[in-house]
């Protein structure tokens, strides 16, 4: 399977994305929570009690008393509607900003998944390439080792030649062991995205050596810069976080402002006190209440100052995120622009390294070169193969990361990259 097929499975199984989906759903509730403070508030209260009291009468005829045992109850409907409550209004706008923050965070996680899939996929393939390169190097060093040993037996070689070849062989063996560990780790990371712990390298489609390179649209960096500033989801979520902090300052500052509330109540009570014994009252009330805070012990001012410092922190964090995003954008843009030239240069270097190995072997037989020259040529060939493989994967990953930094990465981009991988018939 190719990278896009892995991505399609990861959409339903990657725990990071699934967690982000739930976080977004939770964040959307902030909109309703904030709006609730602006809507009517309807309450109903009911109470019923058993009363046991003694009433003493003082009069000209003397003192007398009466024991009363009676039931009392009260029933109240109350409706309140804020007319002016700036704290509630700021809370509503804050809830909207928090919901938008959740949207942008999810958008970032969706785009990040595309990057993670291709990154882990290419890491696994590169580790497999490293294994193949190490195996080829070991075979070449083993052949050189046997040749040097035979020459030593014939009295034409030296023990140093044998030890040099053996040392290079052991080094290649160590690199192969490391590559196998890297492959295991990369496959586990890739498998974790799709809940497939037993993923094998044979399940992955290898990269086509002559894959078509991608043209940059737009071509100039300034256009990419503008795209990133406008569309990067991390910057967008940072702007929403800044808005949340700004509205929190306003919400706290509203503690100095009056609140105006319209209210209506309907109340029925019976024998709710000694003065209303055996009496029932039905009362309907409509009115306006004005509440003006005068002094709260300094809590409002302190909360406002605290929120202001948090706002300043959010401003600095957004500025830092913008700088790091643009640095990453430039890095990936340069990698895409120079990537094609690097691939061509490494391709020529590989041809030269292969020719160098053959010519050096012939020169050793002719007495013009020594054994160490052959080993160095083999090492250079292995290094060139490794660098070419790394450059191929880096180019594809840079193209994806460039769109991610610009905030324009979509499934279609990974689908285009997917075409560069060869599937078995």
UniProtKB/TrEMBL annotation:
Chief place of localization: membrane
Signal peptide residue numbers: none
Example GO molecular function: porin activity
Keyword check for Transport: yes
Domain of life: Bacteria
Pfam families reported for this sequence: OEP
Name of protein: TolC family outer membrane protein
One GO cellular component, as annotated: cell outer membrane
Subcellular location(s) of the protein: Cell outer membrane
Alphabetical UniProt keywords: Cell outer membrane, Membrane, Transmembrane, Transmembrane beta strand, Transport
Stated family: Belongs to the outer membrane factor (OMF) (TC 1.B.17) family.
Protein species of origin: Pseudomonas brassicae
